[in-house]
Specification:
Elements: E1 3-9, E2 14-20, H1 22-32, H2 36-53, E3 62-69, E4 76-81, E5 85-90, H3 107-111, E6 114-121, E7 128-133, H4 140-150, E8 155-163, E9 169-179, H5 185-197, H6 201-207, H7 209-217, E10 222-226, E11 229-230, H8 236-246, H9 248-258, E12 261-264, E13 271-274, H10 276-290
Parallel strand pairs: 5-11
Antiparallel strand pairs: 1-2, 1-10, 2-9, 3-4, 3-6, 4-5, 6-7, 8-9, 12-13
Bound molecules: zinc ion (ZN).
């Protein structure tokens, strides 16, 4: 079951988040028909995004993350809210590469070089934006570096997505440590050595699951649990309001040119189609609402 553990460990000096995300990655594979490589890259970004969303405080807070690298996968976009409804897409969902020197999916080659950009809207006038260089393309290192340099928050992170022979995800998850101000070297050392000896977090999720891992790995973890899932927020009403912001003239010009208006949601692959009658109704309803 997909679940997120969040709390303090290592003498209350390190914030620890453990995420199991196998179902979420399988949902992304199903929606986007992802190749194993694309599933690993988008899946790891979804897990990092879930962690980031779990740090949002307000009910209406939202975030979006863009990895704009020059790898074979193209750009990766993940969005989510404080209720941990997560969604995402990758430009090239069917991309493939030979396995890397370690015999693993070449996520670094999929992502390439470029930047991570994070946008958080937290009820303020201006959204918060942060940005950092992609350091390796392996995603965990990239987000750890983003936190350290852009948000001045020392962070250790392990992320993993394992794809089985039937092309479904058999294990996916992450472990994230953030040191609290004034943490002792001893606590930091303990956390670092756990990350180093952890092995592959996707195998941990496949073989024992987050619950057993949490019991085994930490002696003093006081945590809360949260549920997260792949979930798109698009709806007919949302697309209606988005189209109306384009204006009547633009809508009828597109109708004339294309014969219909088609809107594609990248996050869930749903298509919304408007013929002339639908556009007429949209505009009449908008006018009558105003009156
Ligand atoms: Zn959608």
């Amino acid at each position: 079951m997909d679940i997120l553990y969040k709390g303090l460990a290592f003498d209350n000096q390190i914030s620890v988040t453990v995420i199991e995300a196998t179902e979420m990655v399988n949902e992304a594979i199903k929606i986007h028909s992802l190749s194993p490589l694309a599933a690993a890259a988008l899946g790891r970004t979804l897990i990092a995004g879930t962690f980031m969303a779990s740090t949002l405080k307000g009910e209406d807070d939202r975030l979006s993350i863009t990895l704009s690298g020059d790898g074979v996968g193209g750009h990766i976009v993940v969005a989510g809210d404080s209720f941990l409804n997560m969604r995402g897409y990758i430009d090239e969902p069917h991309c493939e590469l030979p396995l890397n020197a370690k015999g693993k999916l070449d996520v670094a080659g999929c992502v390439g070089k470029g930047r991570i950009t994070v946008l958080k809207s937290m009820g303020l006038k201006e959204p918060y934006t942060g940005s950092a260089q992609i350091v390796s393309g392996e995603i965990a290192e990239d987000f750890a570096s983003y936190y350290t340099f852009s948000e001045q928050q020392p962070t250790g992170m392990a992320l993993g997505v394992k794809i089985g022979t039937d092309l479904t995800c058999v294990g996916a998850g992450g472990v994230i440590f953030q040191t609290l101000p004034g943490a002792t070297d001893e606590a930091i050392d303990k956390a670092e050595s756990l990350l180093l000896t952890l092995g592959d977090i996707s195998s941990v999720m496949q073989n024992e699951g987050a619950e057993n891992f949490v019991k085994r790995a930490f002696s003093d973890y006081s945590y809360q649990t949260f549920k997260h899932k792949y979930s798109c927020v698009c709806s007919k009403e949302y697309i209606d309001s988005m189209l109306l912001t384009l204006g009547k003239r633009e809508l009828y010009q597109t109708l004339q040119k294309e014969g219909k208006i088609e809107v594609h949601c990248h996050f869930c692959n749903k298509k919304y189609t408007y013929d002339e009658e639908a556009v007429n109704n949209l505009i009449i309803n908008a006018i009558s609402k105003k009156e």
